[in-house]
Amino acid sequence: MNILFCAHPLDLRKVDESYEVEYQVAKQQYPCAWFSYEALMLGKLALYGEPISGETVYRGWMMSPEQYRTLYLLLERQGIRMVNTPEDYNHYHLLPRWYEEFSAETAYSIWNKSDSLDDALDLTQGLEGPYIVKDYVKSRKHEWLDACYIADIRDRNEAARVIGNFLKRQGSTLVGGVVLRQFMSLKAIGYHAQSDMPISKEYRVFIYQRRILAMDDYWESHERGTLSLEERAWIETMAQRVQSPLVTMDLARREDGTLIIMELGDGQVSGLQQIPPMVFYEALSSSCM
Fold first, then answer.
1. What is the rounded (10 degree) CA torsion for 184, 186, 188, 194?
2. Which of 74, 152, 159, 252 is least surrounded, with the fewest CB atoms within 10 Å of its CB?
3. What is the pTM of this model?
């Protein structure tokens, strides 16, 4: 197993500074290389660090499905096989793909394949209550009241304001289309200092080959989250249903105490959140034995 990072944009001799801590841990156990993201945008592969070949885990910035496919094929020509194929990446990177598998365990969602405000407003017909707006990959949750949260989806003016802001600010980075997800009442632990976004008790779970690799609280908190044996067994059951090799599953605790799936994503482009890098890479090493 190898680990592949992004290069620092201003110094290709170094790993991107956002992943420097992970790199320092990973290099103790794995051959590590990094590539120029800027060269990739031109359809080229520029590798640095140790020479690598065979199975490789990417740890770096999120990229579009098209960019990921380009990187995958360029690496494949060099004898480097990324742990998730482009199909694997799309399956859990794009909400409509994974929602079909886990609709019973997550918030009700509806979507289209358009960047039109009128088309997005058509989605609101028949809905009621609070919703959030996002695209197939990301929301603008740190602009909570302006471009994410709709207090009452039946209020067409408010829906148009929030969705319109979201579409304008996403611009050309919009992925897939507009998604509306029912806002769930969760066990709150506070509010984000800048955006007023409610922060709930959440957990990030890394899943490798359908088994739990590592998990911890999503948000930094003085009070660590606790999971019962029954809840851990439920998470393991969810993990066994995952189809791609390396995936993240974000869970939240509802007000009644039960767990709900908030998001799934490709594990290569998901942050560790509160999971210590040493714990993550040692777990990955153990799982490969």
1. -30
2. 152
3. 0.92
